[in-house]
Design goal:
Pfam families: CoA_transf_3. Helix content is about 35%, strand content about 15%. With about 800 residues, the protein is α/β, with parallel strands linked by helices. It has a domain of about 90 residues: formyl-coa transferase, domain 3. The protein has a seven-stranded mixed β-sheet, sandwiched between helices. Strands 12-18-17-16-13-14-15 form a seven-stranded mixed β-sheet, sandwiched between helices. Strands 7-8-9 form a three-stranded antiparallel β-sheet, with helices on both faces. The radius of gyration is 26 Å and the shape is globular. The relative contact order is 0.15.
Length: about 800
Amino acid sequence: MAALDGFTVVDLSSGIAGGYCTKLLADGGAHVIKVESPEGDSLRRWSASGAGIADGDSALFSFLACSKHSVVVDPDRAEDTDLLRDMLAGADAVVWSRGSAVVGRDEFAPAAIASAHPHLTVTAITPFGLDGPWSDKPATEFTTQAWSGGVIGLGRGAQDRPPVHVAGQIGEWLAGAFAAAGTLASSPGLVDVSMLEAQILCLTYYSVSFHDALGRPFRDQRRLTVPGVATAADGLVALGCGTAQQWFDLCAMTGHDDWIDEQSDLSITEQANIHADDIYRWVRENRVDDILELSTAFRIPNAPVGNGANVTSFDQFAARGSFVENPRDRFTQPGPPYRTTPSLLRAPQPAPRLGQHTNLYRPNGHLGVKKGDFSAQMSVSAQEGAGLGIEGLRVLDMTSFWAGPSCTHVLAQLGAEVIHVESAARPDGTRLIAGVPTTEEQWWERSPIFSGLNTNKKSVTLDIRSERGVELLRRLVKTCDVIVENYTPRVLDQIGLDFEAVHRLRPDAIMMRMPGFGLDGPWRDKPAFAYVIEDASGITWLTGYPDQNPVEPYAVGDPNAGVHGLNALLLALAHRRRTGEGVRIEAAMVDAAVNVAAEQIIEYSAYGNLLQRDGNRGPAAAPQNLYRTSQLDEFSRPDDWVAIAVTTDEQWAGLVAALGDPSWADDELSDVAGRRRRHDEIDEHLSRWCATRTGDEIVETLWAAGVPVAKVMQPHRVGDLPQLVHRGFYEHVDHPVNPTARHSTLPMRISSGPRRHHRAPAPLLGQHNREVLSGLGLSDEEIAELEDHGIIGTAPAGLGIRTTKTG
């Protein structure tokens, strides 16, 4: 039995975000009824490569709509609206977004549905959220990414070109994953998902908190990540240095131990840029396979560079069966983003044709669903809805850096007791990467990144290299409902705390392991950081300029894994609530990544079209680009930009009118095909127009004309955006060491959720050792003995920790 058997979702969404949300729910066993207007979801006719869609449906639609039913509702027909009301009365959840004639009726707006049907969880996905000063402003995924700070992100790209967005409509996929989690985690009521807020969490690195706490941005200029994606003797290869130790190992691997300077005032990124020419020369002189093998031996993160044409052939994915055949149209698509035992997922069923199931839901359809009787026939009762009682759960959080902590942080914000296990010898890596000098008092407590990921949690330090530390960890496991870890696979295997061991200790425990590449396969032990996950999955391939190597987003891989792991945990909690059984979850980072990069694989497999990098242009809008304003940025550089994206002919007409109806905007540009042909010319005119205006002037003018537009924000400045202030996305959090700082919350407002998300600051290292260990029955004397032997501690033990700046 799948986790969500008997859970009925009415899908009133259009586009990728809602489609992916309901796909994740359908994969989990939910009965998803996709309600479409007579013309059908626009995704049925969508191809990112421009492939012709004849009488059938697009491949992307066929992927996203697996296992769903399609019901056509004409909002102008009374019997159809009656049918929709009946379906809503019998469902458990609704997923909603703008874009169809059905949702244009006031009666079927999110708040109206929630009011009329209080038993429903109503999840709405919009660019900015349902309320606030920007709630009705025109936007696209590209312009919300600019507002989020994600275009500049972690300093992506070189100074001699405009900053570059993360391509592949990534914000749509991320919003969809968060919407699915919000639907599962909520009691009946309204779940208001903001794509802008999802992109802030996944494309920037707690930049507002960093600036508030330390008085400086995480990075103050754009520069290429070195090595990043580089050209080897026979193709592209990706290498990374996410930590100081990895930079030192890279120096040794390339034969340049002389570059190692542990006392340098320069960050490792700055040092790598100094030696870039020599590093790239070394890469050019070696073959891809040799570089990958050598890098793995040196424990340097590495990956081949995946794209739609080659990613399915990589050894790891072939060995693990990561890709499957679409059940209707036979192209290749990613398998599920997580694996569970027992299986909580169902095999994908063919996507429906438009209106294929409409008659089944009419009063005399052969499903036997009669008007007013839909709930009894098709769904569980409202009392058994999706709200999973997260408050009160005890979670053992054996994770570090970003992917794992971002998953458990959501649980902590929703009321779970989360115990974050570290070691005095090896604290969570995010404590060490803020660039705080080790000469400062309690320097390891000052990382705003650690703080941003770990509020409301408790910290316990245990040295699991010792027999006593492992014994205490086992005792702690027995007290926890959920165990989450993202060590490399060999760590838990070595201490004898794998799936089987955990379930012997606590049979009803949910254990989730979050390896980079999986628990088996030839890449099992590869070091995995966000950027190599992006490289291997294809996310990197589309980001950058067509005449240069791809540019790593350097952000998406971790939080994307976190939100997908969260969805897996919520499915497991639903299963445990129903059966009392524990669940084993394998949520590999790369499996989550190939799912949000699915469009590349699908386009190539279905149509033979390899999607390519195109700078800041994209398939969903024309024109779409960044344009320099008349202003200098806050660092006195000519690096201030706006993002403009025109998705419809009506928006183009509004743009032309705002420009004063210039003569160059002739009739040929009135349709998207003409605008694509003359995109370069349009860019020249828009560049000249923007260059004489400030960002605020451009936004005010174009928003008034109905055109999606945004300022390209520095990530540390987004906390001042009026929309985010209105929605309370940032909360002020006090800290015993750092100044008070704004901390991001969840990318959704949950009507049944907490009014405040951050109830306690991130813990000091080992702050809760005594509380937690005494709860296991240890005396004060035993706890003191553990401190004396270094098994627990409240300060880094200095055992090989490298603290060179990584910013």
